[in-house]
Structure formats: structure tokens, C-alpha cells
Amino acid sequence: MALVKVEQSISKPGWVAHFGKKPKDTHKHEDIPAPTIDYEKLKMLCGIEGLKGREDEKSSEEAHETFMTNYKEIFAKPPSKRIFHAQSKKSVDKFSSQMSITHNATGKKTDELRAVRDKKNYPIDEITHDIRDYLPLLHKERKSEHPEAVRADNLNTLRKLLRKLPFERTASDNDKMFSIFKTFRFFNDNVPDNILKELCVVALFEQWKDTDFTVFGRNGLYMVLKGSVRPLTYPHLNTPDNIVDSRSPTPLLTEESKDVLQPGDFFGTLEKVERKPGSRIFSVETVEPNCEFLKILSTDYTKVITQIDTRSNSEKKNLLLTCGRFQGWSDQTIVQVAKLIEWVSFLQIQF
């Protein structure tokens, strides 16, 4: 006797039983974008004579044919979106939205886009051809040429650049510092340009927040960037004209003879000075809180001088080795001869 398994889940025959295959998936209504209607064209079509309305119970054949021929024009065509390399998708969606294809589709004029573009190109709200409307804008951008204003602007620029660590500053930052250094008389009179360029790399930023704080300038050169200080000894700055007196104890200035150093003034020394224990040479005290300084250490200045001399001697040595007469000489002799060479620069003559 054979056993037959009966499928209990058999239901009433449906679509597959009648037609043999499942229907294709239809598109969802939310995926289909709503068409944009041009209401001017729609108003024109509704005004055709002979169409069925309140007065006419039936449309004429001519009016019906005209309506059917032109009814597709009430749907505004979306513009083609051409995305260039310099454009982002967000900007394309902003300026080519389907809801603002024409001013007739929304019932308002789209002047906002034109106003945005005009504001980017013109700093005034309305474009005019009167030159008097643009002169105040040029006057605002104009910088003052007064020496004190230029000096204050240079000091602010130095403060911003020096807040970066030496390895964080770029070559353009160092070039900007060099051009500012050249505006100060102390650097022009005492430091050659080739050395000054190298000092821009090792310049440091220093800040003291307390008043009546003693800053010892014997370890390097200081320039006041912000605040003010009062010298305690004379001289407060080491220059070729001053005779350094490093005796201990150091003679201090009286209250009447103390001058106040303002932003842009210098104190300290570039060259290392031998001092006796307890000497307070080149010392100053802060008068205001949060004083800021430019600092160049004497040790860094010595290293820069040594590196420049080594580089120059190496170039002179290579120059001597190119001559056949010096190729058989010993290295020590060539170095001694190289020290006697001096570079001479000549101005270019234009014919």
C-alpha cells in the first residue's frame, strides 16, 4: 500500500496559477518626481475659445484639437545638469532646483540668485555707475603710511609669526621677518644681511606676565614687542660704541635716570659677554603686565656666524681646487690660503 504526502499549505489558485508568472514590479509613486507646471501656459490653454465650461456644455472639435496638441507644453522641462570639475553636487542642486526652473512655475521672480552673485562681485548692495559710491570702499582698504602706524603694524606681524616655533615657520614667514627686521635701525647698523637672514630662523618668542620682573639681557638680544620695560643698568644694550663693564656688583641706575623702553626698542647683547658672578649687566624690569619680547640667544648668534664662515671657506676651498696649480697642495695649506680670499661684488652694467 503506497503512502502519498499531501501538502497542507496549498491555497487557492492565484495569479501564478492563472497566468503562469508573477507580475513585474511597478514603480512606487514616491520615486516619480512631481512634474513642474507652467501656469502661464495652463492659463493660455484654458482660455481657448470653444472649450467646455460654464457657458459651453460641449467643446468644439477645433478647440479640442488645439488643446490636445498643446497640452504637453504646460509641463516645464527640467534643465540638464552639467557638473564641472570645479563644481560640487551641492552647488548644482542649489542653482538648478526643479522648483525654480522658471519664475512662472513658482509665481515669483527669482531675483535672489542674482543678488547673491552680485554681492560676491560687488561690496555694495546695488550696482551703480557713480564713482562716489565706490570711493569710501577704497578708502577703507587704504593703509596708513605714517611711520608710527607702519611700525605698529610690523610689530603685530612679528608677534603673530614668532608665536610659531622655529621649525613651524615657513620660508615665506622668515622672508617676511627679514623684511621687517630691515626697518629697525639696530639691525641695519650692526648686523649684515646674510647673518640677519639666518637669525630669522632662530628667533624666539618670550613673554613675562608679572610686573617688576627682572629680565637679564646678558644671554641674548631682546626687542620689546608689547608692553614696556625700564633699564636697571647702563648700558642696557651692547653696541660697538659702548664699553662693556661687567664688574660685580653692577652699578644700578637711579630712579631719575631710568628711561622706559617702548615696543621696538632693544636691550641685551648679540655677542657673548664674559661676566663676573653677581653681575646684572644689560638687565631690565617690566613696567606693565604681559610683556612680550623677540629673543635671539647669543649662542645661536655664535652658531650662525660659525656656519656662515664654514660655508664661505668651503666655497673658497672648492674654488682653489679647480685650479691645477693648487691640486697638489695639502688640505691644511689650502684652508689657510682660502681664509685670505675675499669675495667682491660688482654692480651689473647695462649697455
The overall average pLDDT, rounded, is 75
Q: What percent of the residues sit in helical stretches (DSSP H or I)?
A: 25-40%
Count up the helices. 13
**Distance N terminus to C terminus?**
126 Å
- Radius of gyration, whole Å: 43 Å
The geometry reads as: elongated
- What's the helix-strand series? HHHHHHHHHHHEEEEEEEHH
Q: Order of strands side by side in the largest beta sheet? A: 1-7-3-5
Describe, in plain words, how this protein is organized in 3D.
InterPro entries: cNMP-bd_dom_sf, RmlC-like_jellyroll. This is Cyclic nucleotide-binding domain-containing protein. This protein has 351 residues and is α+β, with helices and mostly antiparallel strands. It is built from 13 helices and 7 strands. The longest helix has 24 residues, at 298-321. The protein is elongated and about 120 Å long. The model is unreliable at 83-87 and 94-122 (pLDDT under 50).
Please provide a brief summary of the model.
This is Cyclic nucleotide-binding domain-containing protein. Helices cover 36% and strands 9% of the residues.
Keywords:
three-stranded antiparallel β-sheet; four-stranded antiparallel β-sheet; 351 residues; 7 strands; 13 helices; alpha+beta
